[in-house]
Amino acid sequence: MIHPTLKKCILPGLLIAGFVLLLMPFFGEAKEGAAADGAAFAPMAGPGKKISMGSTHYLIYSFDRTPKLGMLITKIEIFTKEGKKDTSFELKGDAGMPSMKGAHETGDKTFSLSKRGDYLLPVNIVMPGDWEIRVTISKEGKVVMRGRVNFDV
């Protein structure tokens, strides 16, 4: 036999537990450096350094200026192993502050392709601290590489 007071608590408790379980996926935090689909964003070497994209290509990234408050342009150049510029890729970037997840995230933005064949992404740096740009590089709809650029302002 169940005590009457306990009966009054069971149904609301079960409803609350079910509601919490239903909402949990919306509040789960992604692992640091991970994409929404669970794939990791590997840390990339510093600006101006060759970063391998497998056996056929490499990239070099840079900024238009030393990172500080205001608009910062991220530039990525992709080359074949022979050193010829390749503009056949699609790049997306998501910038934000790892220490303040969700506060300043830009969401995926497509890099623009300049006339010189540079992939460009403007990032608005709104406060000092640690920043990260998560880059996804695709070709013909398939992800070729994911990497992250970390810097301090």
Strand element count? 10
| SS summary, helix count | 1
| Alpha-beta classification | alpha+beta
Element string (H = helix, E = strand): HEEEEEEEEEE
Stretches where pLDDT is under 50 for at least 5 consecutive residues are 18-32
Task: Report the sheet-strand fraction.
Answer: 35-45%
Report Rg: 22 Å
Quick check: average pLDDT?
84
Helix content: 10-25%
Major sheet size, sense and barrel closure:
5 strands, mixed
How would you write the strand order of the largest sheet? Answer: 1-10-9-5-6
**What distance lies between the first and last C-alpha atoms, to the nearest angstrom?**
65 Å
Shape: elongated
What does this molecule look like?
Mean pLDDT is 84; it is low at 18-32. The chain is built from one helix and ten strands. It is an alpha+beta fold. A hairpin with a 6-residue loop joins strand 3 (57-63) and strand 4.
Characteristic terms for this protein:
elongated; 5-stranded antiparallel sheet; alpha+beta
Strand-helix topology:
Layout: H1 4-27, E1 42-43, E2 51-52, E3 57-63, E4 70-80, E5 90-96, E6 109-110, E7 112-113, E8 119-125, E9 130-139, E10 142-152
Parallel strand pairs: 1-10
Antiparallel strand pairs: 2-3, 3-4, 4-8, 5-6, 5-9, 7-8, 9-10
Summarize, please.
By secondary structure, this protein is α+β, with helices and mostly antiparallel strands. It has one helix spanning 4-27, and strands spanning 42-43, 51-52, 57-63, 70-80, 90-96, 109-110, 112-113, 119-125, 130-139, 142-152. It is built from 1 helix and 10 strands.
